[in-house]
Amino acid sequence: MEVFKKKLELLRREADTALTRAETAERDLEAAKADIAAKDQETISFNNRISLLESQLEKAEVTGGDSKNKLREVELRVEDLERKIKSLEKERDNLETKLEAKTEEHNKIKSELDETMKAMDDM
């Protein structure tokens, strides 16, 4: 009977040890589940942030594309205006040359008129 009691005591200790290990394992399992839930939430948060950033990137690309198109339009308009400026400057230079020629011609004719008037006065 003594052997039986010792064996029973040994089995009780083993059962207590197993129970303690089981309780520890359950606590560890609960902690792991909590960690997994937290990581899942963090993953969801990161996925939402990624979606938001992708959306912002798409919007920026569209806006950037629009800006590039507008910039190109402005550049073309500037080039067109620069050509018009050059054309107008050339026309102005031609008109200034004509004005100088006409001014010289006017002064020459005026001088001739003055001489003719002086000659008529002298008569």
Description:
The mean pLDDT is 90. The chain has one helix and no strands. It starts with a helix and ends with a helix. The protein is mostly helical. Helix content is 98%, strand content 0%. The protein has one helix at 2-122. Residues 97-123 are annotated as: Disordered. InterPro entries: Tropomyosin (IPR000533). Keywords: Coiled coil. It holds the Pfam family Tropomyosin.
Question: Can I get a quick summary?
Answer:
By secondary structure, the protein is mainly alpha-helical.
Quick tags:
single chain, 123 residues, mainly alpha, 0% strand, rod-shaped
Major sheet characteristics = none
Provide the helix percentage.
over 70%
Structure summary, number of beta strands: 0
The sequence of SSEs as H and E is: H
Shape: rod-shaped
**Number of helical elements:** 1
Keywords: Coiled coil
InterPro entries: Tropomyosin
Region (Disordered): 97-123
Organism: Mortierella polycephala
Per-chain topology:
Layout: H1 2-122
